[in-house]
Write a structure and sequence with these properties.
coiled coil; 439 residues; mainly alpha; 0% strand
Length: 439
């Protein structure tokens, strides 16, 4: 309010003209009445200026002092940080390695403003920068270097401080203090006993001088500190201001921290890809093992089947079960010559008397039955039967011969039947052997 009042306050000539209208005070409007009252105050403008300075002085001190302290502390941290010095050594080493063989090889130092240019040097695949590589080297091999991030805690705040603004604020405060001191010396004695302006402002002036003296002291200390730091790092104050110096370092710190985050995200991504690759390889391996196991089981099953076939075949051959289900055929009789006397007229074969002769016990099929079950007689048997009927003596001799030949005939029938079984066994064995060869 006081600031607006000073801004819109009429000049002294107008105030003098308004003071002449005191007798018409009641007939004037409110703004005019206010102006008449203000015109009655002795040295109104200096009073308002002093009051405004008193109200703003505490705020000015609270704004200026932290900025001075931030710059001073940041300069001390930069100079005393061991991690920051080691970081600069690594940067210099990397630069000399990269510049080997060029005119910049074996350099003894570099400008600190070059720290922000580390991000401009990229790898061949454009994925990482020299700054990312520096951060990775520090994290893996030189973790102590990372302590500079904690050492330079006041760097961000100090980078936002303007030395020119600080100096301007201090000069303004100094001018206001001198102006107040001058006004109090020339200020007339108050006519009103209730006018405490001089008394209040005199006590404030003493406090203001003391605080301003403290600010001036720490400001000079700040200037000495940043001059020492600039000289320590071989920086020309005429070319680079303290604001530029602190801003470059603050930007480098921010980029360094961002590069560390980028490396962490990249490692997490690589780890994620590695795990996915391992999981895929594991799945493929399990799939292959499963297929191999399945194939192995099939091979084992095939071997077991083959082994089972061999075992079954051998067992069937040994037990004779392979021939039990075959169709039995009629025995094949072979006419074997017998040594009869020249006077014997008995036929070689037995008379085929199907009406009076029954099949031997144990024979299921009659040797003279056809496949359709009908009985067919041999013509030779018919003729023999007729001869026997015509010649009873011959029939008698045949009956005698039959009694003698019966045991031998039974044995021959068994041999003939076994021979037929062996004859039938050969094709079946060959078929089984062919099946084994196919397996």
């Amino acid at each position: 309010m006081i600031q607006n009042l000073i801004k819109h306050l009429p000049d002294q000539k107008q105030l003098n003209e308004l003071s002449k209208l005191k007798n018409e005070y009641k007939n004037l409007s409110d703004p005019e009445q206010f102006a008449i009252v203000m015109s009655s105050v002795t040295r109104l403008r200096p009073r308002l200026g002093a009051i405004l300075f008193k109200l703003q002085f505490e705020e000015q001190v609270n704004n200026t002092k932290p900025e001075i302290m931030a710059v001073s502390t940041a300069c001390e941290e930069i100079k005393k940080s061991r991690g920051f010095s080691q970081l600069l050594e690594l940067v210099l080493l990397m630069g000399n390695y990269m510049n080997a063989g060029s005119r910049n090889a074996q350099t003894f130092g570099f400008n600190l403003c070059s720290l922000c240019k580390l991000k401009d040097t990229k790898s061949a695949d454009q994925t990482i920068t020299l700054l990312h590589f520096l951060v990775e080297i520090c994290e893996e091999k030189y973790p102590n270097v990372l302590s500079f991030l904690e050492d330079l805690q006041h760097l961000d705040k100090a980078s936002r401080v303007s030395a020119e603004s600080l100096e301007k604020s201090l000069k303004q405060m100094e001018g206001q203090i001198k102006q107040l001191e001058s006004d109090l010396k020339t200020f007339p004695q108050p006519e009103d006993v209730h006018d405490k302006f001089v008394t209040k402002m005199s006590s404030f002036l003493v406090q203001a001088k003391e605080q301003f003296k403290q600010l001036s002291t720490i400001h000079k200390s700040m200037e000495n500190l940043y001059r020492d730091v600039m000289e320590y790092y071989a920086i020309d104050l005429k070319k680079i201001s303290v604001e530029e110096f602190l801003t470059d370092l603050s930007n480098f710190k921010t980029m360094f921290m961002q590069a560390a985050k980028d490396n962490m995200r990249r490692k997490e991504m690589e780890e994620k890809q590695r795990r996915a690759r391992i999981a895929q390889e594991k799945a493929e391996k399990e799939k292959r093992e499963k297929q191999q196991k399945k194939k192995h089981l099939l091979d084992i099953k095939t071997e077991k089947d083959e082994t089972g076939v061999m075992d079954s075949l051998l067992e069937a051959l040994q037990s004779g079960a392979a021939f039990r289900n075959r169709r039995k055929q009629a025995p094949r009789f072979k006419v074997e010559p017998q040594d009869f006397s020249s006077t014997s007229t008995a036929p070689v074969l037995k008379p085929c008397n199907h009406e009076n002769q029954k099949a031997p016990t144990g024979e299921k099929l009659h040797p003279h039955h056809s496949m359709n079950g009908t009985s067919v007689r041999n013509p030779a048997c018919k003729d023999s039967h007729r001869k026997n009927e015509a010649n009873p003596s011959v029939e008698k001799r045949n009956s005698v011969g039959k009694k003698k030949v019966t045991p031998g005939g039974t044995q021959r029938r068994d041999e003939i039947e076994l021979g037929g079984a062996k004859g039938d066994m050969i094709p079946e064995v060959e078929a089984l052997l062919a099946r084994l060869r196919a397996l």
